[in-house]
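Postdoc handover notes: sequence design on the structure in folder B. Input tokens:
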């Protein structure tokens, strides 16, 4: 097989795949992405998706999507649907139909019986507490279960009765008979089957015994003809067990497992348990809350598949654990949106401006490019006597270097005229509620004669702008490592109280009335935003901030 046309940065897994193809060990590549359907995918999964599907694509192979659905008590169809959506959104397509480990339950059960007949598996009745005691630890060997020497006939009978539903959950397990003194704890008679009287989303009530992940994984790979079983480093110690099962069962193929370092991103948590806790305890508004680290959350926040793929490529694939700075991911989305997002103007904190020397009832249609470097058309911006500017763009006593409106000062309105602040109208409490300004009619598209105007501010017309809600999202945690805090604290204590600011009564330029769900824009001078995919409606637009224009966390 030829090398892929593109020449992406090399890493050890690309080298392994290329060498296997060059040597003839494999004529085609089959990888797999095997999520457990017990939660939503997070940014760490994106690295695995891009790696497994990406390698298959580069080398002309296929990648299977297989749900490792061995624990029905924690699995839901909602998670299955969300995972499929995430994979497709990232730009990948699995080979053939979606697969499930449960598709192989009959074969796995038959192989368990073969292990029993070969004297390599037994039914154990130790309680979980006893099993932990018998297992030993990293410095002390385990000891054999008192049930380890049951006869083949008794084990077959006990396993058949387990399968028939005669025993309660947790009463018995089927274990492999390997070596209780093995230095690798995973080889100390691991569990093959547990009793779980639970309805399964694929097999219904057919089973009340379910295989363990370790027993299921390698055999599923073998059944599917996986050539490169790629997983994260925490499974490295499981590889001898993976191979023991393949060596001791009549499997149709012998896949090889390879491990890489998982993605650890600062200012986030990616533990499914902790993500679920955030949702269940309502610290966030669901799995797709734009502050979460789930792919559905990044999608709702306005991140693009291209930016996430670029991020995964940029951080590389190694066997060394490390922590990636969130700024790298934010750089990737800024870079993508800077090049591709249309420009628009939205005033987050509106202050009314009346241009006193502009004729009442007159409207002038100004045409502004939708992008400064791409030819993607124009948008029309009506200019009229009353407009809105941002409240922070006028100060009576400004700091040094302030280049916006001041009493008697001038600024240019983006794509429009130069205006001068003549008078500020205040309410009974002294708050500024309106500015009275004049405009220079000779400054459309050119500088005023004899004076230099330094500042440029954004604006929208008062009558035709659309009222909208803007949600300013920031990082959910204010600690780089949310799990590390003072003694007695948890990751919840590091939640950033300013991670969401909701602004109502914002005013957006009229062209945004045609925006559709998930459309992305650069709001000039404010950041990158997208139409919220859940709460936005044509008559009540909601925009989510994807990322600021610049890194506000850099030190």
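Designed sequence:
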């Amino acid at each position: 097989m030829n090398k892929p046309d593109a020449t992406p940065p090399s890493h050890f897994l690309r080298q392994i795949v290329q060498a296997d193809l060059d040597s003839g060990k494999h004529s085609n590549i089959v990888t797999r992405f095997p999520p457990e359907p017990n939660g939503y995918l997070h940014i760490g999964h994106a690295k695995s998706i891009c790696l497994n599907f990406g390698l298959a694509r580069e080398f002309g192979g296929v990648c299977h999507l297989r749900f490792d659905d061995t624990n029905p008590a924690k699995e839901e169809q909602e998670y299955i649907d969300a995972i499929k959506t995430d994979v497709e959104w990232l730009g990948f397509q699995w080979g053939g139909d979606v697969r499930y480990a449960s598709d192989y339950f009959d074969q796995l059960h038959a192989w368990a019986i073969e292990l029993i007949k070969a004297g390599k598996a037994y039914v154990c009745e130790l309680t979980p507490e006893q099993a932990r005691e018998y297992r030993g630890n990293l410095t002390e060997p385990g000891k054999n279960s008192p049930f380890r020497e049951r006869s083949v006939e008794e084990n077959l009978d006990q396993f058949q009765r387990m399968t028939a539903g005669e025993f309660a959950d947790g009463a018995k397990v089927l274990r492999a008979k390997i070596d209780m003194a093995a230095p690798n704890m995973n080889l100390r008679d691991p569990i093959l089957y547990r009793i779980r009287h639970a309805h399964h989303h694929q097999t219904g009530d057919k089973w009340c015994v379910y295989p363990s992940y370790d027993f299921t994984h390698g055999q599923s790979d073998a059944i599917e003809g996986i050539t490169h079983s790629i997983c994260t480093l925490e499974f490295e110690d499981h590889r001898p067990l993976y191979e023991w099962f393949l060596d001791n069962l009549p499997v149709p193929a012998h896949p090889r497992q390879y491990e890489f370092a998982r993605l650890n991103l600062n200012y986030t948590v990616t533990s499914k348990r902790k993500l679920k806790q955030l949702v269940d305890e309502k610290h966030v508004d669901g799995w797709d809350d734009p502050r979460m680290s789930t792919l559905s959350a990044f999608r709702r926040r306005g991140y693009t598949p291209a930016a996430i793929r670029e991020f995964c490529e940029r951080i590389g694939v190694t066997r060394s654990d490390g922590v990636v700075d969130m700024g790298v991911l934010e750089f990737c989305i800024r870079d993508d949106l800077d090049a591709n997002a249309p420009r628009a103007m939205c005033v987050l904190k509106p202050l009314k401006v009346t241009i006193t020397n502009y004729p009442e009832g007159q409207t002038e249609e100004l045409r502004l490019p939708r992008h400064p470097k791409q030819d993607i058309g124009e948008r029309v911006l009506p200019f009229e006597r009353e407009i809105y500017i941002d409240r922070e763009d006028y100060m009576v006593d400004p700091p040094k270097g302030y280049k916006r409106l001041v009493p008697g000062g001038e600024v240019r309105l983006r794509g429009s005229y130069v205006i001068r602040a003549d008078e500020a109208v205040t309410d009974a409490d002294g708050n500024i509620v309106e500015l009275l300004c004049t405009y220079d009619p000779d400054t459309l598209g050119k500088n005023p004669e004899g004076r230099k105007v330094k500042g440029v501010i954004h604006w929208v017309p008062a009558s035709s702008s659309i009222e909208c809600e803007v949600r300013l999202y920031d990082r959910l945690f204010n600690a780089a490592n949310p799990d590390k805090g003072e003694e007695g604290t948890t990751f919840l204590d590091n939640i950033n109280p300013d991670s969401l600011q909701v602004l109502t009564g914002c005013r957006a330029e009229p062209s945004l009335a045609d925006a559709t769900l998930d459309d992305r824009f650069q709001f000039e001078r404010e950041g990158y935003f997208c139409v919220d995919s859940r709460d936005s409606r044509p008559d009540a637009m909601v925009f989510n901030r994807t990322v600021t224009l610049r890194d506000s966390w850099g030190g």
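Context for whoever picks this up: DSSP finds twelve helices and 25 strands in the chain. Don't rerun without checking with the PI first.
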